[in-house]
């Protein structure tokens, strides 16, 4: 049965409380402009993301809130429906876990597949933003549903290689104008789905599964990236006021 790391989340939410009041962290790699003329791909247009930048984010479409994915690898950047997207993680995404990351469901020395907080060549760079002009300055709350797939799934943010990973429960508040990235970790290969929904104003969307195709053999047998685990936490965050979450699902 899958469980969210609720106890850990409660402990760290308290520790992170000052972040919601005063944090303003920036990274030049995350400066971007989102315009209201960016196209939305027709529903049913399937795509596999194997590398490059993409953000999950709310958009007001014909008066309705939609949680879409902004594919920055397309020209121009194109918004896609979540159910049409598969995020592919191959050998380039494999990392070795360091000590202190047991909350991921992996132990020091284990190999895991990571969508990193900092962009890595050959790996999708998945984040989220609340920058679409249709939001008209509204905040949002992003909701993570129960992970389906083998092994464990977690999302965490680490602002610098020696800081404590920031862990939250299954929802996170995302202020207007936010663009952020985190580490998305899978401990086993296979097909994984993570239902996502968003609240903007009084409207909450229905959960839609985002699919991940994690390629390779069981952890510990796949060729590992030479990028040290702790480097994944350097930079890659823009927060005006807010908190970035970590979600964990366990089989």
TrEMBL record:
Segments crossing the lipid bilayer: 227-247
Signal peptide (from-to): 1-23
Domain of life the protein comes from: Bacteria
Stored InterPro entries: Surface-anchored_actinobac
Alphabetically ordered keywords of this record: Membrane, Signal, Transmembrane, Transmembrane helix
Protein name listed in UniProt: Choice-of-anchor M domain-containing protein
Species name: Corynebacterium glucuronolyticum
Taxonomic lineage of the native organism: Bacteria, Bacillati, Actinomycetota, Actinomycetes, Mycobacteriales
């Amino acid at each position: 049965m899958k469980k969210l790391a609720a106890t850990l989340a409660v402990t760290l939410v308290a520790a992170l409380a000052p972040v919601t009041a005063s944090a303003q962290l920036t990274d030049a790699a995350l400066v971007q402009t989102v315009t209201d003329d960016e196209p939305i791909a027709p529903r049913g247009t399937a795509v596999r993301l194997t590398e490059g930048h993409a953000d999950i984010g709310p958009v007001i479409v014909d008066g309705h809130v939609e949680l879409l994915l902004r594919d920055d690898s397309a020209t121009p950047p194109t918004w896609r429906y979540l159910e049409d997207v598969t995020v592919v993680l191959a050998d380039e995404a494999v990392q070795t876990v360091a000590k202190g990351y047991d909350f991921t469901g992996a132990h020091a020395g284990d190999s895991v597949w990571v969508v990193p907080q900092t962009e890595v060549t050959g790996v999708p760079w998945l984040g989220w933003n609340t920058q679409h002009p249709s939001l008209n300055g509204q905040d949002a709350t992003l909701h993570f549903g129960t992970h389906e797939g083998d092994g464990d799934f977690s999302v965490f943010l680490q602002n610098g290689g020696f800081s404590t990973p920031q862990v939250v429960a299954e929802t996170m508040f995302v202020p207007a104008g936010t663009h952020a990235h985190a580490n998305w970790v899978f401990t086993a290969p296979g097909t994984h789905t993570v239902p996502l929904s968003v609240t903007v104003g009084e409207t909450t969307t229905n959960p839609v599964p985002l699919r991940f195709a994690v390629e390779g053999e069981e952890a510990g047998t796949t060729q590992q990236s030479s990028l040290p685990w702790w480097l994944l936490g350097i930079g890659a965050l823009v927060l005006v006021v807010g908190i970035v979450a970590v979600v964990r699902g366990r089989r």
